[in-house]
Design goal:
Distance between the termini: 19 Å
Number of strands: 0
Structural class: mainly alpha
Shape: globular
Order of helices and strands: HHHHHHHH
Radius of gyration: 16 Å
Helix content: over 70%
Number of helices: 8
Strand content: under 5%
Length: about 150
């Protein structure tokens, strides 16, 4: 079965959610390599919305979860990719909280910058893989995350 272009496009847009939350981890890399800042451009509208609206991230999460993931009339391909993007985003939020709470004594240290860059580059690869798979019309199979998504959808 061939996935229509509009579904592929909307599935790609879903991955802007984790990408917008990964951008703060790349702050040091953006300073070292200014051309990397262009990677932030697609996520700027979503990041701006999250900052302008009180609890913007939570509102976006609720809308996507209730209107897309839990709506049986939405095609499976979209529901799968939106839920997968939400789960990746939840992991990024937990990592961000860990950095803020547990690793705050290491602020500015080489170890913290290295961890932050690793999270940023890992998320970049994950999002890039998912976007390429969505454009191809295939489910991005990310170990553990995709299994959790399938369990939730069935």
């Amino acid at each position: 079965m061939d996935i229509p272009i509009w579904q592929r496009f909307l599935a790609v847009l879903a991955y802007l959610l984790p990408w917008s939350d990964a951008l703060p981890f790349g702050r040091d890399l953006f300073g070292l390599f200014p051309l990397l800042q262009w990677l932030a451009v697609p996520a700027l509208p979503l990041a701006t919305l999250q900052q302008l609206v009180p609890f913007g991230g939570f509102v976006i999460f609720l809308v996507l979860f209730l209107a897309v993931v839990r709506n049986a009339r939405v095609p499976y391909f979209l529901r799968f990719n939106v839920l997968q993007a939400i789960l990746i985003d939840i992991v990024l939020i937990l990592v961000s909280l860990t950095f803020q709470i547990l690793l705050s004594p290491l602020a500015g240290s080489f170890a913290l910058r290295t961890l932050s860059n690793t999270v940023f580059l890992g998320t970049l690869l994950l999002v890039l893989f998912a976007v390429i798979q969505c454009v191809r019309g295939k489910e991005p199979d990310i170990p553990t995350v995709s299994e959790a998504v399938r369990i939730q959808l069935f």
